Amino acid sequence: MTGRPEVLFPLFGALTALKGLGDKTAQLLEHMAITRPRDMLFTLPQGGIDRQVRASIRDVVPPCTVTVAVTIGAHHVPASKNRPYRVTVTDSETSFQLVFFHARGDFLQRLLPEGERRIISGRIELFDGIGQMAHPDHVVTEDAAADIPAFEPVYPLTAGVTQKLMYRATRGALDMAPPLAEWIDGPLLTREGWPDWKAALQAAHAPQSTSDLSALAVARVRLAYDELFAHQLTLALARQQMRRKPGRATVGTGVLQDRVLGALPYKPTAAQSRSVAEISADLAAPHRMNRLLQGDVGSGKTLVALMALLIAVEGGGQGVMMAPTEILARQHLEGLQPLAALAGVRLEILTGRDKGKERAAKLAALASGEIQILVGTHAVFQKDVHFHDLRLAVVDEQHRFGVAQRMELGAKGQAVDVLVMTATPIPRSLSLAQFGEMDLSVLDEKPPGRTPVTTALVSTDRVDEVIAKLRGAIAEGRQAYWVCPLVEESETIDMTAADQRFKSLRAAFGEGVVGLVHGQMPPAEKDSAMALFAAGETKVLVATTVIEVGVNVPNASIMVIERAESFGLAQLHQLRGRVGRGSAASTCLLLYQAPMSETAQRRLAILRETEDGFRIAEEDLAIRGAGDMIGTAQSGLPRFRIADLERQAALMEVAQSDARALLAMDPALESPRGKAARVLLWLMEQDRAIRLISVG
Ligand code: ADP
Ligand code: MG
Predict the structure, then answer these.
(1) pTM of the predicted model as reported, rounded to 2 decimal places
(2) Of 273, 303, 441, 450, which is best to mutate to test ligand 1, by the most ligand atoms within 8 angstroms of its C-beta?
(3) Comparing C-alpha atoms, which of 571, 587, 666 is closest to residue 620?
(4) From 558's CA, which of 23, 210, 264, 472 has a CA 20 to 30 Å away?
(5) Rounded distance from Cα 554 to ligand 2 centre (Å)
(6) Per the database record, which ranges form the Helicase C-terminal domain (predicted)?
């Protein structure tokens, strides 16, 4: 796979190779990310205009676009340059006027010779009760009627680029498109009735009606599938690469796991047991594990992670668990250390705060294998951190990690198995797009005995009532979080808002009752604020969204979120997930500032309706659209030109299994279909995949 296949050269050449397209236009098109004929090809019409010839304009309801045969009547040359030039025309039943501003008479005489027949097409409007068509889009002789497409595609535009130009340029690009060997699985193609690649492009650029423009039109579905398939093939290649690396077979004895399970006051849920079994099978296999554990807040991912880490220890090795923040790392430490102690396993924490002698001692204990499980922040992967025999890396809450970073992580240590945990339930189509190279375990069941959280919307005007109620709740021994608004994603402003709320609540409830935690506090202060709240010393914890993920204080049963309308749905769901963890009935109060936008209302309504994170995620996708849901740059989620993850979600699933099936049969992509798939990868600029094939 040395270079781009020759058949694709023209499509990747200069845009100016297209007829009638010069340097200046090429520059303008760059604003639409069109720099080569290939991009032109994948820029599909977003609308269409019906230009079927009708007998008369009489029955149409202006304003609308009509196409009609007319006899040209008198030209009315304006007396002044500021007045329009008018031409009366008559169709089979009525007369109307063509109107031209700043027109040149000689040009119009030639275009519309009096007494002759022409077919004209344009937008008709009523002006003083008379039909007018200003600057018709098309004027042709009756012989040339076919030059006006019965249904004209409408392309996205940028300043200085016209529909005519886009039409011509896309035709030019279509002429350049070579027929390509089929990369789609034959039976799939037949079952779906999809056209081949070139025919699909031709059809997508020549819609015959509005339904051809829909995301469900076969030509478009096929082209969308091509994009998804190329993406999934890249992920499947990455997966194959991972699995091919020599792994270590780590087989647990169950001894340590049993000690922990025996000491727990509850039984694992069926979903937890299933996930542990999947992980343990991966660990025991000779290839590398690359698995995602997805579970809603409170679904009990920590226990699954611990079991996995214990298997690593049972098998004679070490495990590491990395959290995105110091707070979460400490919390894991607090939750896991007593359990590890039950199993007689040494578990320690390493973060950026470890310095000097203490750090050196920990590093030495790690290198000798005395520390069997390490919990920490990114610090656990610093260069000078050496493990004695690292078998498993668990990455917690890393939904913002891209594929590339995950692969780097796997490169640490000899043959480390990787388990990524995410508490952000995302729609299946997105998780396939984002984590498609991984195997998936889902905790789709919550531990029993949870009391549902009552969610209520309260206008900010009533904040005094909320404070009064809170006072009563505190008197009953309950604890509350109070989350302050996220203002323009700026930590400094967040901090001020939180600080002010902290002061006002302290004034209301008294000294020592209210705590404060935000991202810019010195770490030690943050920890002690968290610790005081967890211990029940402080009753109210004012916070910014630093408490969003993972934080676990079961006695806290009230969550107040200020300016809830400014938060995203997923984030609100995460925040609410901080309560409802104990046996007491919990409440979530969403304080909003009226008036709310329609989407904000919809978001908050969904939140009131359900606590099912996966359902909330699907709704979020429907409201926001895929592009918005995850920061594209960090997520490694590509921007698709044609595919629409919202409406074509099911296709992603098919693309994944088809891509994996193709690689299973033809790992080096050498069969005829494999070779065709390589061309697709080049066509879709899946550089990473191409590199993977070259090294493989
Ligand atoms: P997650 O990380 O998925 O949000 P956690 O692992 O923090 O969830 O678990 C949430 C709470 O549920 C913890 O207090 C934990 O002890 C408890 N828990 C976990 N598994 C079970 C279970 N099978 N039955 C009852 N409680 C459980
Ligand atoms: Mg957790």
Answers:
(1) 0.70
(2) 303
(3) 571
(4) 264
(5) 13
(6) 462-622
